[in-house]
DMT family protein
Amino acid sequence: MKGLYTIVLLCLSNAFMTLAWYGHLKFKELKWFENLGLVAIVLISWGIALFEYFFQVPANRIGFKGNGGPFSLVELKVLQEVITLLVFMLFTFLFFKNESIRWNHLVGFFFLVVSVYFIFKK
C-alpha cells in the first residue's frame, strides 16, 4: 500500500511541477497574464511549485526503505523520472496540441521504461 501511495503522490507532485515549469508558456494566452514581466511569471511558477513539495516530500518519506517503505533511493529516483516523463507527455498533448512525438522520442521513452525494469530487477 505504501508503494501505491508513493506513486500517487509522485504523480500529483509532477502535475504541479510540470505546470510550474511549462504552464507559464501558455500564460500569455490568458488576458490577465499577457503583460506580466519575467519576475512575476517566475514568482507565480514558484508559488505553483510550492505545492509540488507538499506531495513530493511525503512521497519520498513514505516510499523510502529507510522509513519502512518499499523503495530504495535509486528506485524512487527512477520512478520519479518515468512519472515525470508520463505527466509531461500528457500535459503536452492536452495543452500544446501543436507538439508532436517522433519515432526517436518513442525509442528514447522505450529505453527509459526498460531502465525501470533493470533498476527494479533483483
About this structure: The first helix runs from residue 2 to 27.
